[in-house]
Design goal:
It contains 13 helices and 12 strands. The model has no long low-confidence stretch (mean pLDDT 95). It starts with 14 loop residues before the first helix and ends with a helix. The strands form 2 sheets. The protein has a 7-stranded mixed β-sheet with strand order 2-8-7-6-5-3-4, sandwiched between helices. A 5-stranded mixed β-sheet has the order 1-11-12-10-9, sandwiched between helices. By secondary structure, it is of the alpha/beta class. Bound molecules: pyridoxal-5'-phosphate.
């Protein structure tokens, strides 16, 4: 047996990779499992995007290696998109880097800025990849706790008081996954002031900026952001293109240059057709965003009813692709709770603890579930009505 690299001692198989095997097994045994666990958009990209991809495969040069930095047209379109949607002006030549999904950006950024032994601030609860990638590059995660009472925003004073020796990077993600909490312009300003005082690079991972948000916000719109901030964004959720793997990194030229140094040694450009499709998606008109909003709003109303039926509480104003719900008092721990739901009602929901210990006592519903399945889930949770005769004469 060839021994694995030491770095693999630091990470485990992703929770969903493990759990979905169990879910598939139940389905294979004939149980009608409704998957409300993962945030993989089930809706299609726009017809325009699909048509553009089809036509692009016939273009001259479509099947050759592409530029490490993406097509100039894609970078220009991303810059225009950021200008129109977030009022952030970016130089498409130097301040925009297309990625194959924002997830790969987490690895590239970590490789570009973290030395073994450096520390990175990681939110709890948060997207598990920040911590695993930090460990894979030999750096040390410094977990910061988020709480419902503080609106899932970090207590920056407490972090400074605790000491930030060796901290080089801070991961934030607003709108926040899994809680759906948002940060406003003044909170972004606080984060940037914190980063500047402590010489930390803040990265806002922003893939949910268009899901049920009233107004999309970018941390880069804060005037003081230059030099200390990067933002990741993605087409996965905004345009139902998760499998296409298109993301983007935005920020100051010198920072992006370092990331490109890593990336250009790891891949050889993104498929031309995908880039052309991405351009078409980014040019989508207002009706696309309205359609997305209406769909998730309707689904969320159904999921709120499911949460009500389970006796959970939640924030009506939270945004994003999930409903983060607090379990009723006296419930078992969230992993036991979701196992009971899975085995008794055949509903798969993510336990809050997948996202860190601060997720204890919470569960996360995905909105990537068809209306019919939401209805069916509600039906499975209907209170059991005893026959009238039994109620009249319980002993009989
Ligand atoms: C917070 C967060 N960041 C990044 C990603 C990865 O997105 P992408 O598909 O762009 O790699 C996800 C996906 O679920 C996510 O929830």
């Amino acid at each position: 047996m060839i021994p694995k690299a030491d770095r693999l001692q630091q990470v485990q198989e992703y929770y969903f990779s493990r759990k979905l095997r169990e879910v598939r097994q139940l389905a294979a045994e004939g149980h009608p499992v409704i998957n409300m666990g993962i945030g993989s958009p089930d809706l299609a990209p726009s017809a325009q995007v699909l048509q553009t991809l089809k036509e692009a495969v016939e273009d001259a040069g479509a099947h050759q290696y592409q530029s490490y930095q993406g097509l100039p047209e894609l970078r220009r379109t991303i810059a225009d998109f950021y200008d129109q949607k977030f009022e952030v002006a970016l130089d498409p030549e130097t301040e925009v880097l297309p990625l194959m999904g924002s997830k790969e950006g987490i690895m590239h950024i970590s490789m570009a800025f973290l030395n073994p032994g450096d520390r990175a601030l990681i939110p709890n609860p948060g997207y598990p990849t920040y911590e695993s990638v930090t460990r894979l590059v030999g750096a040390e995660p410094l977990i910061y706790n988020l709480t419902e009472e503080q609106g899932w925003f970090p207590d920056l004073e407490a972090l400074e008081a605790q000491g930030l020796d060796g901290v080089k990077l801070m991961w934030v993600s607003y709108p926040h996954m899994p809680t759906g909490a948002t940060a406003d312009a003044s909170q972004f300003k606080e984060l940037i002031a914190f980063a500047r005082r402590n010489h930390i690079l803040v990265v806002n991972d922003n893939p949910y900026s268009f899901v049920l948000t009233h107004r999309p916000l970018s941390i880069l719109a804060t005037p003081e952001a230059r030099g200390h901030v990067l933002e990741l964004n993605s087409l996965s959720k905004t345009f139902n293109m998760a499998g296409w793997r298109v993301g983007m990194l935005l920020g100051e030229a010198q920072l992006l240059k370092a990331v490109l140094q890593v990336k250009s040694n790891m891949d050889s450009g993104m498929f031309y057709g995908i880039q052309k499709g991405a351009v078409a998606a980014l040019k989508s008109g207002q009706s696309w965003f309205e359609h997305l909003d209406a769909t998730y709003r309707r689904r969320r109303a159904g999921v709120f009813q499911i949460a009500d039926r389970l006796g959970c509480s939640y924030d009506h104003k939270a945004v994003g692709m999930f409903v983060w719900a607090r379990l009723p008092e006296g419930s078992p721990d969230s992993e036991t709770y979701i196992d009971q739901l899975l085995h008794e009602k055949h509903l798969f929901v993510a336990p809050g603890t997948v996202f860190g210990s601060q997720g204890a006592g919470y569960i996360r519903f995905s909105l990537c579930v068809k209306d019919g399945d939401i209805k069916e889930a509600l039906k499975r949770l209907e209170p059991v009505r005893r026959p009238a005769a039994m109620i009249k004469n319980p002993e009989g």
